[in-house]
Amino acid sequence: MASWRQGYRLSTLWILAAAAGLAACRPAADEAFLIRDVTIVDGRESTPLSGMSVLVEGNRIASVGPVGSLRPPPGTRVFEAGGLYLAPGLWDMHTHALWEPFVSDGSLALFVANGVTGIRDMGGELEVLRRLKAPGRERGEAEPRIVASGPWLNVEELDSRAGMAVVTPAEALRAVAAIAEAGADFIKVYLQLPREVFLAVLQEAAARGLPVAGHVPIEVGAQKAAELGMRSIEHMQAEIGGYCNPEETGDCVSLFETFRRLRTWQTPTLVVRRNRAHLEDPAVVEAPGLEFAPAYLREEWEAVRTLRLESMDAEELDAVRGRFAAEGRLAAALIRAGVPILAGSDAGDLYCLAGFSLHEELALLVEAGMSAREALRTATLGAAEYLGLEDSLGTVEAGKLADLILLEADPSENIANARRLRAVVLGGRLFDRPALDRLLSAPDSVELRGSREPEE
Fold first, then answer.
1. Which fold has domain 89-387?
2. Taking the CA atoms of the chain, what radius of gyration do you get in angstroms?
3. Mean pLDDT, residues 132-138
């Protein structure tokens, strides 16, 4: 059986810059530059390392050392970074940025503008996946690294943009084969899959070296899904809350121990659960960054919000809020138990905007009990460990890919400081603050080459 690590063929995909002239604001990917006198904050060191310099050559970190200890090549551009903090690029490990070409076009650069240099996409159109993974596709510059599932598998389609219906084991085998051949990095499953269909998915995915993640099929249950090899469980409450209640003494002990022992990662996606529970709250519908969302996405979210608020009475709204409060307690129990956690925002869902919503998710994880340092590690080295890519991502070390964020304050002291971006380095390309601002300026103008024309 192929290792799950072999399944993650990390794709370095690039999109066109959102504004002309961006390349003039930063080094090209093959131009060496030195970040001098910076404080390094990452998931390996217990305390920040001050007075450090980092040399980037090509798309990798060439060397790291105290100020004055590095010998960069002649002509190397130097960025004075005294008083600034350097951390690994962030990963949003639950997104929906590949629903259709126009979602991708308006979302991908927003991740980079927020310091998110990698995403795990959890359900998108097969054709978009195929085009993104196509050999020889001309690559742009401001797109995060993408690990993607393509369409999820469920007994009902639910959403033609992101799902595929499979009813029998034979259909499951064919679906996994089609998704794998389109270039998927893993297979996503959904709640209503019958047990025998889920087992067929696991079998075919393993044969192709692809992990399985997503929702726990109701007929299987969380503990059995973990024992069968499911790699991560998304959204927490629907999948775990039905099987254990952390407020009942000992109720979750066996399940959480299984998750720890088998390294079955949990992705709480607290921010989208909060948004669904508080659709009447201006803090949700007027959150910072929503002005940068494509207009069609804002209109879709507002339509869903209006319909839900009109169709729910006060008692139903209170019940939804109660469920979110219970999810916060469940997340806290997972954190206390040492279950491995991924930071994922469900970007693309209700009022979860690409890039911006990951920072909200990190804040909610801290509210649930993580320290700021733990939250930063979850979105950096934790993501790399899950993907089996800790040898090339997740810390600021020589030899690793140059995916970095330069910050004005220490994110390990206050996770809100991860928002205070001075620059982003993506595969050796440095986007300074003006360049990041330009990525935010025109989300509807970003073009994904090869995407389909709008239908008449």
1. TIM Barrel (3.20.20)
2. 21
3. 81
What are the beta bridge partners of residue 153?
A: 164, 189
Beta strands 116-121; 145-148: pairing state: parallel
Any alpha helices (H) in 80-218, and if so which ranges?
101-113, 126-132, 169-181, 195-207
Domains of the chain, residue spans: 22-88+394-445, 89-387
Report the pLDDT averaged over residues 150-169: 87
The reported pLDDT for the residue numbered 104 is 64
**Cα–Cα nearest to 379, from 359, 356, 408, 407:** 359
Strands (DSSP E) found in 43-84: 49-57, 60-66, 77-80
Distance CA 3, CA 22 (A): 40
Indicate the helix (H) or strand (E) that contains 282. Answer: helix 282-285
What residues form DSSP beta bridges with 212? 187
What whole-number distance in Å separates Cα of residue 100 and Cα of residue 93? 19
Contact residues for 308 (Cβ-Cβ < 8 A; gap 6+)? 279
For every residue of 295-342, DSSP letters joined together read HHHHHHHHHHHHHHHHH--HHHHHHHHHHHHHHHHHHHHHHHHT--B-
> How do 49-57 and 33-40 pair as beta strands?
antiparallel
Six token digits for residue 211:
């992990």
On the 0-12 / 13-18 / 19+ scale of CB atoms within 10 A, 321 is: middle
Instruction: Give the chain's mean pLDDT.
Output: 86
CA gap 92, 42 in Å, rounded: 17
3-state class (DSSP) for residue 347: strand
Please tell me the predicted confidence (pLDDT) of residue 110: 93
Query: Tokens 């980037």 belong to which residue?
Result: 56
Within 13 A of 52's CA, how many CA atoms are on the CB side?
19
Tokens describing residue 217? 């099929």
Region 22-88+394-445: CATH code: 2.30.40.10
Q: What are the C-alpha distances in Å from 169 to residues 49, 164, 185, 187, 233?
A: 53, 14, 21, 15, 22
406/453: higher pLDDT: 406
396 and 404 Cβ atoms separated by less than 8 Å:
yes
DSSP state of 166: -
- The answer on pLDDT for 180 being more than 50 is yes
Separation between Cα atoms, residue 225 and residue 232, nearest integer Å: 10
